[in-house]
Amino acid sequence: MKRVIALFVCLLLVHGWAAAQKQNNIWTFANLGGFNFNGNTLTQFPSSMSGSLAGAASVADRNGNLLFYSDGLKIWDRNNNVMPNGNGLMNGQTYAYESQNVAIVPSVADSNRYFVFYVAQYFFDWPGAWDNQLDDKLYYSVVDVTLNNGLGDVVPGQKDVVVDSGFATALTTFPGRRCNVWLVTHMRDTNVFKAYSITGAGVSSPVYSKTGNYTGLYAYQTCVMKASSNDSLIGLTNFTVSITPGEDVASAVELYSFDTATGIVGNCKLIDYDLNFDFNNFYGICFSPDNTKLYAVELASGVYQYDLSAPTLTAITASKYNVSSSFLRGDVGLAPDGKIYVGSYSIPLSGMDCITNPNGAGAACNFVANAVNLNGNATTGMAFPQKVNWPYRDTAEYSHDTLLCPKELATLQCPWPGDHYLWQDQSITPAFDVSKQGIYWVRSWDLCHLQTDTFHVDTSSLHVVLGNDTTFCIGEKIVLDVTSTNATYLWNNGSNASTLTVDKTGEYSVHVTEGRCTAADTIDVTVNPLPVVDLGPNKVLCTADIDTISLPTDNGMTYRWQDGHTGPEYYVKQAGVYSVTAELNGCTAMYSVAMNYQPCDCPVFIPDAFTPNGDGRNDQLHAIASCETRGFQIQIFNRWGQLVYVGYNIKDGWDGTFNGSPAEIGTYFYVMSFDSQYRQKVERKGDITLIR
Q: pLDDT, tens digit, for every residue of 650-692?
């Protein structure tokens, strides 16, 4: 039905969540609060998490509507109720203190399911006084948002699944390039990263990356990791390099590269460090939207900015700018509105600080203290929620040429079987019917692929028209011409020519094929006979005669004579050639006849007496005509009415006898008739006298 030719392919990689950023528009915090970024202005709402300085994670649907949230200890639905199977995570642990202990990863296999990863770590009262040693395992539970009447619940049998142990506090995610999401973790007491690929098959074995400046007891024990907006960098604060007096470094800021194709972490750069474990350690960290600035928090001295666009590592470190010297600031987080918000340990909070232009260098970043009024009833504590990442979408753009044959209805089929479809008219089916030329497009996608197919639909120029049914007269002909470029032809009489000459009645049809298109047409041809008129032979008329030429009136013909006269009869009064044009069913024929005149009188002499006495003079009665005669007859009667003589030849005469004997002297009567050479009928009557 259609011909499709792929002209070009353009492959791109698009961040899986970029097309649906509203899924990160709801922030929930571990202490009775949340931000909604769906409108033009940030709004606040209450949550059910309380009593923890830990991190939190939340996820919304494509329209920005909250689905669920968690602090790693419990999972709440959108109505702020703990899910039926969402209580007692981490084997019933009741308190969490770490900033990035929970992260949400969407299932690649099922868009209604999410992995909730969480990790437990050491908890301490004050520096140097370690107690309440918790396990350091990485767990996950799977949430299905269709369960519990659409409010969501933890899938039975997929709760508190242990991945591994020996982890530090930080969890962060990256979109993968192979239909996967990376969960990046850091091991405690060592400089080892583990990156887990979450695919449609589940959680894979980790990719190990041994990189970083520190190792040994307490190294990376408590750390914060954030991904850059372009997913190529990891910013990390190492809160506890060492708590031992006399150690060179107590806390540090590091920068790493991350490969979203392989999960490898590398290229560690030491941006800054602190020599003393004095609770002025580095804690919160995040990147500016354009990834040129790195922001880090020292708990006791405020927020600092580092210019990553500086040419050398030394220059980056030297670019350190004190954005704010506020005390007990915690994490910093880049929000969907493009601003960076600053958390705090102060409880309760009256307001939240904000960096409104984080791409700006130095003071141009525009730090605003207490930019968000919290009314003293909430705290962001140590952490902001982790961004939920979706896999990179392999994005392909294809162009197709599609040719419509005449009167064809074609179906454009989306070449790629996605989960969702969108055509140019907002149709959402895999196929689209077209009957006219134009440009049509369809987008098809699933979690990991986005394909755009553009169809350039043209209509074949093949057009076969034999015309309307036609009638013409015998002796005429028409030429049927369907010539087209690069076409083949087949007429119903077997001809393969592009033209056909027609001079007979019949139905004529042709099929013309050009490429994959075939067009056909049929014409009925009627050849009418010429009208036939009989004017008779040429005639010679007698002077003063009037002749009438009469033609039929019941044959449907019309007539027009040479002088414009119309009608079936024509009166001839003089010599000449007379012509008539007869018309019947659109056909005409002309006929002619010659009419001549001449004198038609034929004088006949017959004596009024004769003497049949044998003297050789006037012995016979003769009629003498001045013209040729035909059908001559003469009858002679006596006075009693007796027929005494009949003659049939004008050259013969009556010898005056009756029944062989001389007739009596007296008066006799004659009747004479004949046709003259002019076709004139001549009749004469008279009397004669017989004398002896």
A: 888 999 999 989 999 999 999 999 887 766 788 889 999 999 8
Residue 22 main-chain phi, psi, to 5 deg: -65, -15
In whole angstroms, give the CA distance from residue 563 to residue 549. 14
pTM (predicted TM-score): 0.65
The reported pLDDT for the residue numbered 233 is 97
- Rounded to whole angstroms, the Cα distance separating 198 from 536 reads 109
The C-alpha atoms of residue 38 and residue 30 are separated, in whole angstroms, by: 20
513-572 residue pLDDT tens: 998 899 999 999 999 999 999 988 998 877 777 888 888 888 889 999 999 999 899 898
The count of other CB atoms within 10 Å of the CB of residue 388 is 20
Structure token pair of residue 194: 């583990």
pLDDT tens track for 414-429: 887 888 999 999 999 9
* CA–CA separation, 199 and 106 (whole Å): 10
Which domains are present in the chain? 4-11+392-459 (2.60.40.10), 17-378 (2.130.10), 470-528 (2.60.40.10), 539-598 (2.60.40.10), 604-690 (2.60.40.1220)
Radius of gyration in angstroms for the set of CA atoms belonging to the chain, rounded to a whole number: 61
CA distance 427 to 653: 120
On the question of pLDDT at 246 being above 70, the answer is: no
Instruction: Answer for the pair 118, 70: CB distance below 8 angstroms, yes or no.
Output: yes
Cα of 190 vs its chain's centroid, Å = 58
Please enumerate in sequence order all residues whose Cβ is within 8 A of that of 244, keeping only pairs 6 or more positions apart, or say none: 218
Whether the CB-CB separation of 289 and 271 falls below 8 Å is answered with no
